[in-house]
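pinning this so it doesn't scroll away 📌
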Amino acid sequence: MDTSDPSIIFDAQGECDYCSNFAKTIAPNWHTDARGNTELMQLADKIRAAGKGKDFDCIIGLSGGLDSSYVTYLAKEKMGLRPLLFHVDAGWNTDQAVGNIEKLVDGLGVELYTEVINWEEMKDLQVAFLRSQIPDQDLPQDASFFSSLYKFARQHGIKHVITGSNFSTECCREPEEWGGYLGIDKLLFGDIHRRFGKRPLETFPLTDILVYKLYDQKILGMTVHHPLNLVSFVKNEAENELERRFGWQRFQHKHHESRFTRFYEDYWLPRKFGFHKRRAHFSSLIMTGQMTRAAALERLAKPEMDEHFLRQEFEYVAHKLDLTVQELQQIFDGKNKTYRDYRNKRWMIGFGANAMRWLGLEKRYFR
């Protein structure tokens, strides 16, 4: 991490606050040994008991990427659960992601439900966000994923949500300035779409973060579990295991299961705003002993994908969004803005995130 995160702090020894937070807050509370296994089995017993007489014990959002794929394998094979796999097709799946999902479903013998987002509405919202000129361009996809899953769980009385979110590959969270806005803010979405959208969002799922954090979890009793924090989850080993067991195919980098996210993180964000999310991804692997700093700097010295491929992707994204290449280029060349240029309730969401840290419910930095 470097000063492209404007809030980063270095101490007298040159150590940044991400590393000190990992050493002081995350590592002492992260147990992947016998203690973690005991907690994992107790969690499995609790979820199975709550699921008696029901079709499913829990629900898992599955993208086809590593984290969600491995937690699915863990839940079914090692925890003995009966999960419903929930996939949201927002129009940007890579063939590799679709293939990985099919292999897991067939190999594990589990049920899959796919929610298909209305493409015309998805497209309109994504173009509106692009025209807003803010770095947070993955918010429309994220909103469709989380909102659909929580809505489905709420409608079907599913109380246990299992997520692939973990410390091993995500202990260094991307700062807010890099497009890491803290959740789904309906006020922000509404203002951006009002200014730049062209059609009403009649079916697009949009659940405000305060609804699924407070109403769903605190009133309805829905609980989100992070089983990957209770086992030894090492990126290369997990990829090898999934490949050996199911023929699962690994991705070149994190989040490459979505064609738009791959383009956004590898082209749009670094070239338009100067932000490289790979810095945070690699920093997580460095802190957890899975990558050297020298190897990370070598990777960062060049784009993740070659120039010819990236130009092809630029054209693909433009055409898929019904924009000409010139129109997308004009947006790219436009004046950069931030969420602060639009109506939002970031202060309220930030207060909630800080409260979770004060209560010890969240150990990563949110800023």
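📌 and the second one:
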Amino acid sequence: MDQETKKLKEQLFYEPKLVWDEIDEEEKKKVFSLAEEYKEFLNNAKTEREAVSFIEAYAKRAGIPVIKTFRNKVIALVKPGKEDILSGIRLIIAHVDAPRLDLKQRPVYEKWDMSFLKTHYYGGIKKYQWLARPLAIHGRIVKADGTAIDIKIGEDENDPVFTILDLLPHLAKKEQYEKKLADAIEAEKLNVLIGALPFGDKETKDRFKLAVLKKLHEDYGIIEEDLISAELEVVPAGRARDVGFDRSLIGAYAQDDRICVFSAFKAILDCDQNQKTAVALFVDKEEIGSDGATGAKAKLLELFLSDIIKGIGKQVSVADIYHMLSKSKAISADVNGALDPDYEDLHEKQNAARLGYGVCVTKFTGHRGKYEANDADAEYVGWIRRLFNKNKVIWQTGELGKVDEGGGGTVAKFIAYYGVEMVDCGPAILSMHSPFEISHKGDLYMTYKSYKAFFESSDEDKIDECYS
């Protein structure tokens, strides 16, 4: 290739860039340092309640001026900017829930001299991935007198763990092998093994169940009826781990979407030059459609903003808040699916996100014909491009699989409802929704860097407002 052709290709072509090719040795040290903080967050935030508690405590120590929580499952962090809040805000919204197994309200039973807990899966899981692996139980029990008890069993090295039994391969031919993968494991068989010792003599009925309830009463002062008013979640036991000889990757449960949650709260803590009011909002229930009082469909954003504005002495109407939001910019901080070399035919490779190539800007979400999607306009994507390039953020674009194969939703469409400029932006991960998701440390760092740049951005790259 002659030099003129080479120069023209460099000028005109777009190619994603590998993070490790674009940063210097000093920044590489920051990549690994940030990953250590992130792993600590993952280890202490396996449920939505734990994530909110961790963020609140961390934010208070860091001196965040405004912290709003709702039902221990939603939290907003706010840093006022130099400009009037009514001129618009910078909002990053992410979700703190993750796919898991929830205990049913009457979970304890015994069968064939063993004790079990019945579960109901939450969100999109592959059921077979939860069999024959160590599991922990986290959550809250509310007793008859209203006392709340938080439990976490299976994480300390001295704790027992729990498991769901799998069928031995010698007997699995008809029961599992000959069925479709989606049908091979029945949801009603995702029962957690919790014990195998009885209480009482041979004449005692349900003595294995009784032994479990006796232990729970001794340790926590609860009776079986208290489990009806409980939120107990079964999650993979164990800590977040480095993956690979070079320790370039992180393997852990619930990185969808806690990698974005961590990046956003770390970014708002570290931003110190924000012209606009910066808001990091972390919500619940995304994995089951964002419904309910703690999901993105609830009017929590309006409620929080109203309280914040009143707190600075302004009297505003709902219409004023809507006008403010129409002037605001937002990021739906959520992950994308990385190109998997063993299943690459399910991706349209030219438009697939790749591990290690930085934060992924996802212009639209949804299914097939962009149903149930947010679709960012060209002006806003152009503004994001300029912002990231100006701040030396390594970024890429991506879709979640081929048009007729993939697709997915985020909270973006529920916030875009207010007329906010909105785009999805987060790292790509492998093994999404599995008990051991894989992220790249370089992508984590660029996600944090992009969110910090977003919080600190101004309107100097002016885009004409569509509402005047």
